[in-house]
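#structure-requests
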Amino acid sequence: MYIVQIASECAPVIKAGGLGDVVYGLSRELENRGNCVELILPMYDCMRYDHIWGLHEAYRDLWVPWYGGAIHCSVFCGWVHGRVCFFIQPHSGDNFFNRGHYYGATDDYMRFAFFSKAALEFLLKSNKRPDIIHCHDWQTGLVPVLLYEIYQHQGMGNQRVCYTIHNFKHQGIGGADILWATGLNREAYYFHYDRLRDNFNPFAINLMKGGIVYSNYVNTVSPHHAWEARFADVGYGLGHTLEIYQNKFGGILNGVDYNLWNPESDNHIAQQYSIETIADKAKNKQALRNRLLLQDVNKPIVAYIGRLDQQKGVHLVHHAIYYALNRGAQFVLLGSATEPSINNWFWHEKHFLNNNPDVHLELSFNEELAHLIYAGADMMVVPSNYEPCGLTQLISLKYGTVPIVRGVGGLVSTVFDRDHDTNKPLEKRNGYVFYQTDPQALESAMERAIGLWYQYPKEFEQLVQQGMEYDYSWKNPGKQYLNVYDYIKCV
C-alpha cells in the first residue's frame, strides 16, 4: 500500500510534543510491514537539519494557488532516520515557516491552511497518487476538505483520508479569509453548520471540524479518549459533530518506538538492563543521583517528565513534590512551563528547594536526561487533567518505573491498579490509578506505591516486572491502522 503522511511534526527533526513521535513511529511500523510510506512536512527554519540525510531539491517550481495568484515553493527531499520526507518551502513575504518556532504565531491557521493546500498541490503536480493520505490534528484538517471539494475533480478521485486527532483542545479557528485564500471561496456553503462552521461561533471556520466532516475515517489516540471526546468536555465543543459521524470514528492507542525507548539498548543510560537483569536498574538510579547531586540514601525516587501546564495537572505535580518528600522519597522533575505564571511558580519552588538533597527540578527539556530519569526512577507520576494517550506511562513501564496515573484517556487504557483493578488478575496489574483531581486522591495512590516500596520490596519488584512484560510497541497499533486503511479503500 502507498501511504502519505501529512503532518506538522515528525520526530526527531520536528518535535514540539508527542505528535512528532507518533508520526515517526507509525511510519516506521507501516514500512516494516511492507508498505511504501512518504511524509510531507513544512520546511521550518528552526527544525533539526542535522537529523536529515541527503537533503536535496526534489521539485523546484511548485506554484501553489493562493488568493487570486500563486506562491512559488520549492520541495526538498531527505531521509529522517530512514523515513522519506518531503519538506515544503514557500518563497513568500509571508515567511510562513521562517518564524523561529513551530507554533504560536497569530496567523497559525493561515500558515497551516497554506501547508495543507501546498501538500495536495505537490501530490497533484508530482503525479503522486497514494492509496491513503493520513493527516494529523487541526494543522492538516483542511486536507480532506480540499481533496473532496477541489482536487478529486483534478485527477485525485481515488485517494482516501484517515484523519487522526491527537488533542481536541487546539482546533484551528479562523475566518472566511481561509476560504478565499485556498480557493474554496463559497462562504455561504462552507459556513453551513454541517460543514466547516464552528459549533459555537457562527462567524468562524473550524479546521478540525472540517477534517472530521470530510475525511473517510477519524480516530483519536486511545479508545477511552474516543469515548471521552463524545461524552465528556474534552471534546471541546466537537462532541455533537463526533456523534453525527460516530460510524467513522474510533480510538487507536499510540505505540512507543522501542528502537528509541528500550533499556536493553539505550545508549543514554548508565547501565543497560532487561526484565531478566532488573537488578542493574539500580546502577542508573545511582548515576541519576550523581548527575543531579541527590544524596545517596535508601529512598525511592519519584519522577515527573512532561510539560508544566493545566492539561498535565500542574497543581498535582506541585503537590506530588512535597508529598514525596514528606513521605520519605526523593523527587526529580524534568519539564518546562507553557505559561509565564506557571514558569515563575516553579522557578520559585526550584530556588526554595535548592539546598534540599532529596529533590531536583530541571525546568527545561533534555532528551538525554529524560532517558536516565526513566531508567533511574522508581515511580513516575502522571496526574493529567486529560490525556488523549500519553507516552510517559508507556515508556515508564518499559523501563520498569511504576506509573502513578490519573484514570483518564489513554492512561486508564494502559495502567491497571495493583490493588483495585478487578478487570485484570493480580499478575497483570502494572501501576497505580486515582480518579479525582484533588490532592487527597493523588496522595492515596502515592501512599500505596511508596508504602509498597518500603514495606514489601519483593512485591514492588514483582510489580515492576509485570509492567515490563507489557508490549506497547507500534506492532498492534500498526495493524489496526492498516485495517482502517483497508476499510476506507473499499468505501
